[in-house]
Amino acid sequence: MEKSFAMISLGCAKNLVNSEQMLYLMSEAGFTLLPDPDGADLVIVNTCGFIDAAKSEAIDNILEMAELKKAGRLGGLIVTGCLAERYKDSILAELPEIDAVLGVGSFKDIVAAANAVMERRTLSLFGDQSAPIDELPRVVTTGPGWAWLRIAEGCDNFCAFCAIPFIRGRYRSRTMENILEEARDLAAHGAKELIVIAQDITRYGTDLYGKRMLAELCRRLSEIEGVRWLRLHYLYPDQFDDELIEEIASNDKIVKYLDIPIQHINDTILKRMNRRGTGGEIRALFKKLRERIPGLVLRTSLIAGLPGEGEAEFEELCEFLREARIERAGVFPFSPEEGTPAAKMDHVDFEEARRRADLILELQAPIMDAFCEGFVGKTLDVLCEGYDEESGMYCGRSYADSPEIDGQVLFDGPGREGEIQPVYIESTEDGLLCGHLKEGE
After folding, report:
1. Are 127 and 86 in contact (CB under 8 A)?
2. Parallel/antiparallel/unpaired status of strands 229-233 and 193-197
3. Residue 15: which region, alpha, beta or left (left: phi > 0; alpha: psi -120 to 50)?
4. Burial class (CB in 10 A: 0-12, 13-18, 19+), 295
5. N or C: fewer beta carbons within 10 Å in the chain?
6. What is the pLDDT of residue 169?
7. How far is Cα 236 from Cα 33, in angstroms, rounded to an integer?
8. CB neighbours (10 Å) of residue 186?
């Protein structure tokens, strides 16, 4: 009997890797993946539970699937991921439409959950979220030409505003051998760009090897045939050392794009949020990185309205951004997350936090526009991701663009999906670069 399922994956790239692992396990167990939950025997909703907006999105998806199930157009509903883990004591009682629930330590049990649902049984499994990482194969759903490469799980930073350590567990590095084996397989299947991810990649190896090993890992990854770009995501400012900076500067395969979440620049706020280091140290690090790595693109995450942020602290953050001219910035209003120390601290209301976030975005807009204009008249290597019907051009990303969060490059073809091609940039508008393929000229 044919068994079918659909998958809804929400949240971050690390969550998507878990979804890809579940896709592999379900496929191996004989389940057929359908593009739409309507008509499937069951659906897996892999949830995010990080902030209120993510929780709302997850619950909306669960309720939408429950309506399909009630209408007889869907067999069963499995919920996995961070929302399930965060509310493991109440989720089945609050959402009785769910047939099976798996915590973040139980992804490997997805087939058991699916079989239980097919047999009309309820199942609830919550393994140790701080256990060693399960080394499971994946069905890569990104690309063409790129893939996420997760090198660690969990977090030991315990920032006062963040629930991740309580949801995803303690920091655990994967062994270098397992990472390299997966990277070789990804490259063999056409991945030109590997995006190295973890909640904090700068601490890679400290738990396994007793020292920071990211620089060594990057050296080893860059030796893999077929890998053209290595992109580094979530480097914490307090863990940089000269070895890592030199590796980034001298390794041609590491794209000169660093995602370093700082959240704020005011010393008092950083201390209250349990962020290691000071605003002065962040300024010094960014200055050092700019000097050592020509052409560097910096991305950061900022939170407006954190506890302790008055007008003076907010203006200090704005002044820092005017000086630092960070090319890429994600800005979020403070969301007091239940169970975190920051949720109990005094802070501005959400509307004021959102107003400040909007002001930062306004401040950043001309900085980002000027950055894009600097590419006009230059040739960029672009990873072609396909044909864009709306523009009638091919689309892709340069070294300065990470998927889903940054801009794109549109160009006249012939583009080759999954290949890195030279594009001459002719114009820019709203964060998009436009040009033409330079091959053959």
Report:
1. no
2. parallel
3. alpha
4. exposed
5. N
6. 93
7. 38
8. 23
Please give the structure tokens belonging to residue 305: 């309205």
DSSP string, 311-377: HHHHHHHHHHHHHH--SEEEEEE----TTSGGGGS----HHHHHHHHHHHHHHHHHHHHHHHHTTTT
Output the pTM of the full model.
0.93
Q: Are 317 and 265 in contact (CB under 8 A)?
A: yes
Average pLDDT, the chain: 94
CA 325 – CA 329 distance, rounded (Å): 10
Give the integer Cα–Cα distance in Å for 39 and 399: 41
pLDDT exceeds 70 at position 393: yes
On whether the CB atoms of residues 58 and 83 are closer than 8 A, the answer is yes
Pairing label, strands 432-437, 420-429:
antiparallel
CB 347 within 8 A of CB 371: no
Please check whether residue 260 is in contact with residue 223, taking contact to mean a CB–CB distance below 8 angstroms: no
Predicted pLDDT at 440: 58
Give the tokens for residue 170. Answer: 């303690």
One DSSP character per residue, 74-98 reads: --EEEEEEHHHHHTTTTHHHH-TT-
> Are the CB atoms for 435 and 424 separated by under 8 Å?
yes
Confidence of residue 189 (pLDDT cuts 50, 70, 90): very high
The pair of structure tokens assigned to 150 is 């997760």
* Nearest C-alpha neighbor of 43 from the set 5, 73, 10, 91: 5
Q: CA-to-CA distance for 346 and 219, rounded, in angstroms?
A: 45
Is 30:3 a contact under the CB 8 Å cutoff?
yes
Burial 226-248 (b: 16+ CB within 10 A, else e): ebbbbbbbbbbbebbeeebbebb
- ∠ CA 17-197-19, nearest 5°, is 10
d(CA 214, CA 218): 6
Number of H helices, E strands in the chain: 13, 19
Q: Name the packing angle between helices 242-250 and 214-222 (round to 10°).
A: 20
Instruction: Name 163's Cβ contacts closer than 8 Å, sequence gap at least 6.
Output: 49, 50, 86, 337, 338, 339, 340
Query: 282 with 240: CB under 8 angstroms?
Result: no
Half-sphere exposure of 94 (CA within 13 A, CB side): 12
> Which residue is it, tokens 């990482």?
133
